[in-house]
């Protein structure tokens, strides 16, 4: 039977790359985003198209109809909780609206997705895959609220990995470093730069979305709860475990 994956944030970036990889391997694809044009562009890139759904992941009630409609086509084997927004800059200069929107999309939306998808994943013995971040490995100066949300996704993934094992559901998270997607064009509060410019100024590398897509495939089919993706994420995981003092000093210099 054909496997099926439902992907939020499917209109661009990581969501699009994951859709392309899984579709190339015969999976049925469901895409969700607030960007209808982006969804159409992604679907057009897939060999058999995709079911597309326009809704806001922060609205819990909005999840139910799309998941039910997609599941009617043959169940749901993977929910990829990937929708997210980038935010950063000087914490004290972020607007309350920016803080609340970041928390709503990056954390509350992931919680809603997990809650809404549980019964489908239990029926299929499937996998919940959440996009966390290297910023969820150690709190990142200049991205305080973003880091907080990704620590939340990390904690949720670990908790549900334990709680849902009795239901036969695997729970996994991706922890990418800096991925070359449109998210990096977000402006930084209190600066004249966007995220992309700041990453380049710091001499850090970008990881191609195709590498993240393969990491998503490996995570779904592997046993590790967390999968760091890219050199930055792997360095941070090593430093957080073995060199926490040095990592702390690096964050202070930022």
From TrEMBL:
<protein>
    <submittedName>
        <fullName>Short-chain dehydrogenase</fullName>
    </submittedName>
</protein>
<keyword id="KW-0560">Oxidoreductase</keyword>
<comment type="similarity">
    <text>Belongs to the short-chain dehydrogenases/reductases (SDR) family.</text>
</comment>
<dbReference type="InterPro" id="IPR002347">
    <property type="entry name" value="SDR_fam"/>
</dbReference>
<dbReference type="InterPro" id="IPR036291">
    <property type="entry name" value="NAD(P)-bd_dom_sf"/>
</dbReference>
<dbReference type="Pfam" id="PF00106">
    <property type="entry name" value="adh_short"/>
</dbReference>
């Amino acid at each position: 039977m054909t496997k099926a994956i439902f992907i939020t944030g499917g209109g661009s970036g990581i969501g699009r790359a994951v859709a392309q990889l899984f579709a190339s391997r015969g999976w049925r694809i469901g895409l969700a985003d607030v960007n209808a044009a982006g969804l159409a562009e992604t679907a057009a890139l897939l060999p058999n198209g995709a079911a597309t759904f326009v809704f806001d992941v922060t609205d819990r009630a909005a999840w139910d109809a799309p998941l039910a409609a997609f599941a009617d086509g043959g169940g749901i084997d993977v929910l990829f909780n990937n929708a997210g927004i980038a935010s950063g800059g000087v914490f004290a200069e972020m607007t309350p609206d920016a803080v609340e929107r970041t928390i709503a999309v990056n954390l509350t939306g992931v919680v809603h997705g997990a809650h809404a998808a549980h019964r489908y994943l239990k029926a299929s013995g499937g996998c919940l895959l959440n996009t966390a971040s290297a910023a969820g490995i150690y709190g990142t100066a200049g991205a305080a609220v973003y880091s907080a949300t990704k620590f939340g996704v990390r904690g949720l993934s670990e908790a549900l990995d334990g709680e849902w094992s009795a239901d036969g559901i695997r729970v996994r998270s991706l922890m990418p470093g800096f991925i070359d997607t449109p998210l990096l064009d977000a402006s930084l509060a209190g600066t004249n730069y966007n995220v992309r410019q700041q990453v380049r100024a710091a001499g850090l590398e970008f990881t191609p979305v195709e590498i993240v897509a393969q990491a998503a495939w490996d995570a779904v089919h592997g046993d590790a709860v967390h999968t760091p993706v890219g050199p930055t994420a792997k360095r941070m995981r090593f430093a957080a475990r073995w060199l926490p003092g040095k990592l702390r000093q690096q964050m202070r210099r930022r």
